[in-house]
Structures are given as structure tokens and as C-alpha cells.
Design brief:
- The protein is an alpha/beta fold.
- It has two domains: 3-203, inorganic pyrophosphatase (n-terminal core); 208-326, Diaminopimelate Epimerase, Chain A, domain 1, CATH 3.10.310.
- The chain contains 13 helices and twelve strands.
- The protein has helices spanning 3-11, 26-41, 75-84, 100-107, 138-149, 155-168, 180-190, 195-203, 208-218, 236-240, 246-257, 289-294, 312-326; strands spanning 15-20, 45-50, 68-69, 87-91, 113-117, 129-131, 222-224, 229-234, 264-270, 275-282, 298-299, 303-309.
- The strands form two sheets. Strands 3-2-1-4-5-6 form a six-stranded parallel β-sheet, sandwiched between helices.
- Strand 7 (222-224) and strand 8 form a beta hairpin.
- Helix 6 runs antiparallel to helix 7 (180-190).
- The protein starts with a helix and ends in an 11-residue tail after the last helix.
Length: 337
């Protein structure tokens, strides 16, 4: 991951703009907040931003109230911050287009911007991207960086890094046999991370009304190939009415994968016009990132996504064919099928 160059760049900056991807999640926010605390302990002035709002179940994280929406700042204040900046640091993505309005500002700022991410690079060789796709989460990478920057970290920083790792591994369920995330978690708990509070807020704090809604949504699960493939259509009105949020959608595809016998799961989220947002997950026997790439998307080996222009019925037919081909059960259709 060329950690030395990243360390040198961070150590030499006294004023850093810190952010994560649009529609921020637990890994991005936890990594950002943890680094904020560590950098401030080194007398760095940090400007932490997000594009959007902090999800409800992440509001408990130390420092969450300090995250500001760049787009809501007055232009004059934006210019003052950019004029003083020495480095931009974007966590949990390496895609400029996902960094939101602040990303657009950073592209033309008079100082460098670096990316810390665990997603596979779409274009290898970009010197500003520091990525390790083998890591469980960006939180794990941020923790590695923090250990090199500071001999000790605060309880607040440890809790944020721990939350980032817990979120992206679904409470350490999805580690694919790798022990590094458990070692990081143990170190963070030793440093004071409040693991109990993280679990309670991230995974055990759903309101009763929301749980009842999700139960009704899950009644629409469909399965094929003797139950090895499961999918669910998420209606536009559930999102537009505010009944479901981004975190709920992530939990839905996870719930599909937890059904006994399911090897591959996907959700199709209705958006404007004929557009569908695809989320793909695999238990590990079937790689799904290649399927997503063939549809114009991408992601990890066993967790990927894409944007489709099709009816739900057309999308399901195409996805079933692609999954079966990946399983070696038939020829793959063309991407436009």
C-alpha cells in the first residue's frame, strides 16, 4: 500500500480536509472520525466533512456532531478553508465522482488529495490512491495508518476505528478466514474502544416499527436453483416515503445471504425511470465482482454493485443467467441482454 509515502504526506501537512464518499456509511464515517482524533492529537488542524447526513445509528460515535456538509457552507467560508488547506484525504473510496461537492473542490485546489481505500482500484497505478483490497475495511487501513502516526490513540479514536471495522464486516461475520481484522479489533479494545456500545447502536437498535416494515418487505423474497440464489425487489415508494434508508437496504441484502442454502443474493432497488440499483453478495463460492463489472459496476470479490437500465423482470433474467454462468452452469449472456 506504499504506507511510507502516505505517512510522509500526512505528517508534513498542518491543515487537512478530511472526507468520505457520498451517502456515507459506517466504514467511511468511522475511519474519518478516528483519523480526525489522531491527527488532532498531533496538532494538525482538521476539517471533517461529509456529503449528506450522519445515519441515525452512527450518531453515537465520538465526534459525529462535528461532521459538516460541505455543500451547506457559504462560498466565502469554503474559500477560506481551501486557501488554508495543505492536504485533502478521502477515505473509503478512490473515485473522484463519489467524493461529492467537496471532491469537486479538491480536484482544483492548490494542494494534493490522497485516497485511503480498501476497494479494488478501478485503474491501477494512480499514485494518489493507497489501497489494500485484502483488508476487511477502510477502518482496518485507517487503524494501520494511525498506529504509525501516533504511539497512542484515544478511546474516542479507538471506538471510531472499531465501529468502522465492525460495520463493514457485519459484526465480524465476513472475514473470509483472515485474522487481521480480529487482531485490529483486539488492539482497539485494548486502546479503550467501547465494543459493547458499537454493537448496540450498529446492530441492536432498530425501532419496532422499522422491524415490522422490514418483515413485510422480506415477504417478497424469491429464490431459484433449489434455493441457492435469492433476490428481492425494493420498491421506489419505500425509499421516497422515508420508510427505508440506505442502512436498511444494506441489511436486506445481508438478510438474504443468511438464509440457509443461499449462495448468491441480490437486491434490485427501483429508482427514477427504468433505472435499478443492483447489490450483489456471495457466501464465497461464487465471485460476483466480475458479474457487476460486466454490467458497468464493480466492487469486491463477494460484494459488488451496479446500476442497471432494465425492467425488474429483465434484470432478474439477466442476473440469473450471469450467476449460473459464473457457477459454470451455462453460457453468459451479453451485457446488453
Amino acid at each position: 500500500m506504499r504506507m511510507r509515502r502516505l505517512l510522509d504526506s500526512v505528517r508534513s501537512a498542518r491543515e487537512i480536509l478530511l472526507t468520505t464518499h457520498q451517502a456515507p456509511d459506517g466504514d467511511g464515517i468511522g475511519s474519518e472520525l478516528g483519523l480526525m482524533f489522531v491527527l488532532e492529537s498531533l496538532a494538525v488542524r482538521v476539517h471533517p466533512f461529509i456529503d449528506g447526513e450522519v445515519p441515525d445509528r452512527l450518531r453515537h460515535l465520538p465526534g459525529a456532531q462535528r461532521l459538516r456538509n460541505w455543500a451547506k457552507l457559504a462560498p466565502a467560508e469554503q474559500q477560506v478553508i481551501l486557501a488554508a488547506g495543505e492536504l485533502g484525504l478521502v477515505v473509503d473510496t478512490h473515485d473522484w465522482s463519489l467524493a461529492g461537492p467537496l471532491g469537486e473542490a479538491l480536484r482544483t485546489a492548490g494542494f494534493p488529495t490522497l485516497f485511503l481505500d480498501h476497494h479494488p482500484p478501478a485503474a491501477p497505478g494512480r499514485p494518489e490512491v493507497f489501497s489494500d483490497p485484502q483488508a476487511s475495511s477502510t477502518g482496518e487501513l485507517a487503524w494501520r495508518l494511525a498506529r504509525e502516526l501516533a504511539p497512542q490513540i484515544s478511546r474516542e479514536a479507538a471506538t471510531c476505528f472499531y465501529a468502522a471495522i465492525a460495520y463493514d464486516t457485519n459484526s465480524f461475520k465476513y472475514l473470509r478466514g483472515r485474522a487481521a481484522a480480529h487482531r485490529a479489533a483486539a488492539d482497539l479494545i485494548d486502546a479503550g474502544a467501547d465494543a459493547e456500545a458499537v454493537y448496540r447502536h450498529l446492530f441492536a437498535s432498530r425501532p419496532p416499527g422499522k422491524l415490522a416494515l422490514l418483515a413485510r418487505v422480506l415477504e417478497g423474497i424469491e429464490r431459484a436453483d433449489e434455493g441457492r440464489i435469492a433476490w428481492l425487489l425494493i420498491r421506489r415508494e419505500w425509499i421516497s416515503s422515508g420508510q427505508l434508508c440506505r442502512d436498511d437496504l444494506r441489511d436486506l441484502v445481508t438478510s438474504l445471504l443468511e438464509i440457509d442454502g443461499v449462495e448468491v443474493a441480490f437486491t434490485l432497488q427501483e429508482e427514477e425511470g427504468p433505472s435499478l440499483k443492483l447489490s450483489l453478495r456471495s457466501m464465497g463460492r461464487v465471485a460476483v465482482n466480475g458479474i457487476a463489472r460486466s454490467l458497468g459496476g464493480g466492487g469486491h470479490l463477494y460484494a459488488a454493485a451496479a446500476q442497471l437500465t432494465a425492467t425488474p423482470e429483465e434484470a432478474v433474467r439477466q442476473l440469473l443467467a450471469l450467476i449460473r454462468a459464473q457457477q459454470g452452469e451455462g453460457p453468459a449472456p451479453s451485457a446488453g441482454a
